[in-house]
Amino acid sequence: MTVAERLVDHLHPELAALRDDPSGAAEFWSRLARDGAPLVEPDPRTPGHSIVTFVFPLPPQAKHVAVNAGYGNASDHVLDRIPGTDVGHAAYRYRDDVRLSYAFAVNVPLVPYEEATATEIVEMLAYGREHPPLMDPHHRQHFPIRVEGQPDRNLSFVSLPDAPDQSVLDRREGAPHGQVHRHRFTSEILGNERRIWVYTPPGYDASGGQTYPVMAAFDGGGALTLTPLHRMLDNLIADGRVRPMVALFIDNATETSRQDDLPCSEPFAQFVETELLPWLRANYRVSHEAKDHAVTGVSYGGLAAMWFGYRLPHVFGTVISQAASLWWGPGWDMSVRFNDQKYATEWLIEQYAASPRLPVRFWMEIGLMEHPSRMLPPNRRMKSVLEGKGYDLTYSEPAGGHDYALWRGTLADALTKMLPAV
Fold it and tell me: pTM of the predicted model, to two decimals?
């Protein structure tokens, strides 16, 4: 049984009643404002699964609205309308351990990315920047997105009955909290400036003799807000599950620089090794040993973490890779239609396959709702390569997609496993 699939023939009982009497639309929205969305019901035909119906008030000017249901292309997830109402809906069967974020996109281009021309790709990217997806106005669960220079917004998500516990992310009143220090860092190697945050754990003493392990996280703003890693560390340290550590949050210099920095960039690796880490060591009481340095990231950041394990094993002894974009290779061009690309596919996998075993430990995960050809197979091939080389590897395929709603929980598992309290 698949983890997720759309049910084109299912209509939730409340929607069936609305189909029979469209005059009840206003009352339906009032109920949702009180009870919350989406509509969730056990699947009577498939044990261990639930049926989730996403609903959204269709704007008058909308030609179509698509829901981000955790997998697939926008064209697969266009909402249906209850005739005579503004009620848009789409039903899905999910495994009961799924947790996913979701949003609604009005008039989003429906051409699949793999089939889009260079012009269409540019238009799609521009549309996404100018028309960010909309949260569910009736969501039961959400987490905030705060990006400097942009309005605060919320990301809606849904947790099914067996979704793993994520209470480690909750703010605990009265619990010891670390501090987050904000810096601007200029790189001569990259010729740019970016925000850097440094988390110091509760009880950190800048003048003491203790040195701390280092956790470096890419997409620093996202790691602070979408995860949020600093709060997770407070709780894990308080629970005695991980060692007190210093966390280094490395932000992207510009809106587009992550496309250049994170996919196996030699200049970016040099920047971290020869500029950023020496600055950290000069200003914070941290260990200089690779066994005490870990690096983590998601998507392109997961690829960058794997790249640092290969390129900087003398610096980072632990890699935590979440949903690594291991399909990538030199020559990839975002402006070219995917099916017309000519690039060295799965380049980093080949580098590990050709290299002797390096002194690095790995945590790898890839969600079962990820892209069935671009994401899942390359991660499974990397797993096979690492196992064949005899690496210390922890690998998992949780029930989720390319999604912070998943990663923010599994990262706590990774830290507990890879950086346990002594």
Answer: 0.94
